Amino acid sequence: xxxxxxxxxxxxxxSTVSRVLNNHPDVSEAVRSRVxxxxxxxxxxxxxxARDLVRPQSDAIxxxxxxxxxxxFTGVIRAIEDTIAQAGYTMVLHQINSxxxxxxxxxxxxxxxxxxxxxxxxxxxxxxxxxxxxxDIPFVCCSYTNSFGSLKKSAYSSVSIDDQAEARRxxxxxxxxxxxKIAVLLDSIHDHSISELRYRGYCQALSENGxxxxxELVAETDTFDMAAAYEAxxxxxxxxxxxxxxxxxxxxxxxxxxxxxxxxGRRIPEDCSIIAIDGIDVSAYTVPxxxxxxxxxxxxxxxxxxxxxxxxxxxxGNRHVRVDTTxxxxxxxxxxN
Amino acid sequence: xxxxxxxxxxxxxxSTVSRVLNNHPDVSEAVRSRVxxxxxxxxxxxxxxARDLVRPQSDAIxxxxxxxxxxxFTGVIRAIEDTIAQAGYTMVLHQINSxxxxxxxxxxxxxxxxxxxxxxxxxxxxxxxxxxxxxDIPFVCCSYTNSFGSLKKSAYSSVSIDDQAEARRxxxxxxxxxxxKIAVLLDSIHDHSISELRYRGYCQALSENGxxxxxELVAETDTFDMAAAYEAxxxxxxxxxxxxxxxxxxxxxxxxxxxxxxxxGRRIPEDCSIIAIDGIDVSAYTVPxxxxxxxxxxxxxxxxxxxxxxxxxxxxGNRHVRVDTTxxxxxxxxxxN
DNA sequence: TTGAAAGCGCTAACAT
DNA sequence: ATGTTAGCGCTTTCAA
Lengths: 337, 337
What we know:
2 copies of one chain form a homodimer.
Chain A: H1 3-10, H2 14-21, H3 29-42, H4 48-54, E1 60-66, H5 71-86, E2 90-96, H6 102-112, E3 117-121, H7 129-132, E4 139-142, E5 157-160, H8 163-176, E6 182-186, H9 194-208, E7 218-220, H10 226-238, E8 245-248, H11 251-263, E9 273-278, E10 291-294, H12 297-314, E11 320-322, E12 326-328
Parallel strand pairs in A: 1-2, 1-3, 3-4, 4-5, 5-11, 6-7, 6-8, 8-9, 9-10
Antiparallel strand pairs in A: 10-12
Helix pairs in contact in A: 1-2, 1-3, 2-3, 5-12, 8-9, 10-11
The structure holds a DNA duplex.
């Protein structure tokens, strides 16, 4: 079932069918409707490989996401999709899993779909110039930076929060409430990624406020999943450490931590305050509502697209945008009694 | 940057480059390494449109998902991806939004990627034969059926739970605990979809147990989002209806309902029991843990792939598989005191 | 307004 | 072991 079949079936040439399919004006109404009729009848769908192959360039913007299931990403993806569509472009989403290399995936997507630009969501923080060289189109890192890599600032674009500063802010909010024994729940202190940055902010807040770091109050999960977060929190409790507050580096982990604490007999916030960073939808429905620093998912997505389109359309250079979080005052933080 | 550039740059012909790229055995080691070197140097990535165009057929299985953000889907998607990979095929994921037509999207994907088969996740329950005719490859509906459409059983495959029966089971669990005033929280009683089926189960359980349907105990949200579920539950409470139990058609909505009830001063389960259907990860971390009928995400995904590959490889006919839910006994249901 | 034909980048015969 | 070449399905000049 090709355009040729449609052409023969309607008694016209392939170029005429192509014109009809692409809404070219110079086709008689009679022919147009005859062709459309055939298309319907034959359930013809154009082969987009062939289409993409021949078209000089597409209107496609690529989005490579590591883990579409990540609830934090869903809001960002929605914003990206909307902004791209509004600008008259098409979004091509490509999902990869934790093992895959997002730069290779992006490069491949760029070729195969003739992308105009690329947005990366949930990538690594440690690219080298050699790795990004494979990408010959503009790209922007959404919700992360190259803090642990060797890329020059001018070699990539990014939209992100200041992870370390925001983590520090979160921990300081706890300190301001009188807390001194503050535990932290994170993926790993050496992941060369978001977890490490936020851990630095935690350390910074402690030291700036004259508190010493107690390694027994640092709970590592080695993953971002909730079961691990629950277990790590339980272990923290078992050590009978007398922490009165907990900083969690992600909302989803905090949801599990809340349950572990309550299952362990701690009331929140009376016995233990808890604060996190992310601001995913579901964490607004915990009991008590999770107090968290909300990353502005919508504006991060929108900004990423705007930076990219500026580069694509106007040839502007790479840009880095820092966005601020917003404190969601839930009920999970209280002054130390 | 095409295969031709690579060929010229390495001083060989395009076919030799193609052979190297596709791991054909009949290439000398010297030439192979020289070509690979050039590929790296030039950051060459094959144009997959051209590739797909020329290859007789691919090893691709398509997955069209309405709303990758839906937490229920993530487990299913993971299972589908794993099973497809294990069988030596490649998964092509295509995400669509609520407005788009999954059949058209699937047909387009099938063409463009030369799919061997298609899995639909989150589609409509009311296809007509005309609509599915556009799809000329085997497909299976995952987590839904054609209950409201006119498709013959032999015209499509499906993997799903028996929505009506499972809803009835959930409500009966509440009745067995002595509850008589049972409210229901759902999307719409006339959505020609999952919500309507589960509502039927609710009605059936009531009537079979001699309970009358009270329309004031039916809360419709007209959407699946949590904010609407929260509001609808709040309204239910405001009517001061004396229900002692609540059946919610989806876990995510139940999470919001729990909060609304607790914010309204109801204790769970002492003042109000709550049960749902789905079994998403996060609902295991509510306080109390949500009691729910778990849809076996992993086996549903795996089964969908197996049905599809049977059709693709062995030419077997369409098949329909019903899977059972598993009760997760949380802490949100208690006997009527 | 329509048709003929070139060519997009690639793979796979078919030659050598 | 390597090169030459014919298409895959489509869009787009160029001619008529």
